[in-house]
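DM from R.C. (forwarded with permission)

"hey, sorry to bug you on a friday — could you get me a structure for this? deadline for the figure draft is monday and I only need the backbone to look sensible"
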Amino acid sequence: MRAQFVLSEIGVGLRRNLTMTFAVIVSVALSLALFGGALLMREQVSTMKDYWYDKVNVSIFLCNKADAATAAKCAKGAVTAQQKEQIEADLDKMDIVETVQHESADQAFKHYKEQYGDTAIASVVTPDQMQESFRVKLKDPEKYKVVATAFAGRDGVESVQDQRNILQNLFDLMNGMNIAALCVMGLMLVIALMLIVNTVRVSAFSRRRETGIMRLVGASSFYIQMPFIMEAAFAGLLGGAVACVLLLVGRYFLIDHGIALAEKMQLVNFIGWDAVLAKLPLVIAIGLLMPAVAAFIALRKYLKV
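My reply, with the result:
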C-alpha cells in the first residue's frame, strides 16, 4: 500500500511539473552526454598515443653537400663514411635503442617522390639534395633526449628530430577539445542542478497541504520526502538513458557510418564499442544519483511542514 501511494505521488508530481521535468531530462541528458564524450575522447587520445608512440622513430639527419654550404652545423662538410659507421656503432651500443635503419639519399628521394610527386617543387628536387638519415626506434620513446644529447652537434649530423613532436600538436588539439567539452558539461550540470532544485521547490509548494496532513498523521520525514526524491531520480534516469543513446548514436555515425571516420582515417586506431559500452553504466549511475542527492538536499530546506 505504501509503495503504491509513493508511486501514485510520483505520477502526480511528474504530471503537475511536466514542462520543468522535461527541461531537467534534456539538461541532464546533454550534460551527461558531454561527460561521456569527454571520457571517450580522453581514452581515444590515450589509445592513439599508445598506438603511434610505439611506431614513431627518432631521426638523425646527416649532412650532405648542399647542407655544407648553407647549414652552420654542417660547416665541416658532408658526412663521411667513417662518421656514418661511428654513429651506427654508437647507436648499437645504446641499451635504449631497439632497431636502427639507415636511409640513403636515393631512398629518401624515392620516398619523397611517392609522397609529394604531384607537387610543383617535387619536379626541381634532386637526389643529392636529400639527406641521409638513421631511423632509430627506441624501446622507450620518452627517452628521446638521451639520443638527442648524444648525437646533436656531432660532426656529420645536421639535426636530430623526434617524430612525436609532429603528433603532439594533434594530441594537444584533442586535449583542448576535451577540456572545452568538460567546461560545457560543467555549465550544463549546474543548469541541471538548478532546474532540479527549482522543480523540487515547486512540487513541494504545490503539495504543501498533502505533506502537512501526512505529517499530522505521523508520517516520517523520509516517507514524505521519498516521492519528491523519486521524481527527481526518475527524471535523471531518463536523462541518463537519453545520454547513453546519444553516445551510441554518436559512435555509430561518427566512426562506423555517416561521417565514417574509420574509413577516411584508416591510420587512426579508433576506440571500439567496448569502450563506449563500458562508460554507459557510469552515465546511468550519475544520472540516477545526482538528481536524487540534489533533491534530498533541497528538501531539507524547502520541505518544512
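R.C.: lifesaver. The first strand starts at residue 58 and ends at 62.
me: no worries. The chain is about 70% helix and 10% strand.
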